[in-house]
Inverse folding.
């Protein structure tokens, strides 16, 4: 298994894997999000606010995962305000249970630490929850959303 950092040439792979992840998590692909995903990956990779890893087996991508870098106002629990967010961690079904996602997660955490981002969070799917719990992530409850159109 080869692990590497994605670059602009990998955007279509990242788009494809993100869509597979969303479908596996129960979302219905009732609209075309290819352009939006392409723009998202292009912008965030270009601005270096996203590092996306890809696992390759015999030259074919089998898993991917990313870490975003944000800065919030400093707080008593995070004096720098720096926060990393793990997203898009997805492994093709035939390759699950082989430690690939854990290896990618390790690489993403190492990337965050190398940038002095010591707070890392994520929103776990049912499939990913056991991995994150085993890794040492603590469940702090769900996320809240505001939509003025609601």
């Amino acid at each position: 298994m080869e692990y590497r950092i994605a670059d602009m040439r990998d955007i279509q792979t990242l788009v494809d894997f993100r869509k597979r992840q969303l479908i596996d998590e129960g979302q219905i692909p009732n609209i075309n999000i290819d352009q939006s995903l392409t723009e998202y990956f292009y912008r965030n990779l270009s601005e270096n606010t996203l590092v996306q890893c890809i696992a390759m087996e015999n030259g074919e991508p089998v898993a991917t995962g990313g870490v975003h870098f944000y800065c919030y106002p400093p707080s008593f629990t995070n004096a720098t305000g720096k926060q990393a967010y793990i997203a898009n961690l997805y492994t093709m079904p035939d390759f699950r249970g082989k430690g690939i996602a854990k290896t990618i997660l390790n690489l993403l955490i190492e990337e965050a630490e190398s940038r002095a981002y010591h707070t890392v969070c994520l929103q776990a799917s049912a499939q990913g929850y056991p991995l994150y719990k085993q890794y040492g992530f603590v469940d702090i409850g769900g996320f809240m959303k505001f939509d003025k159109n609601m």
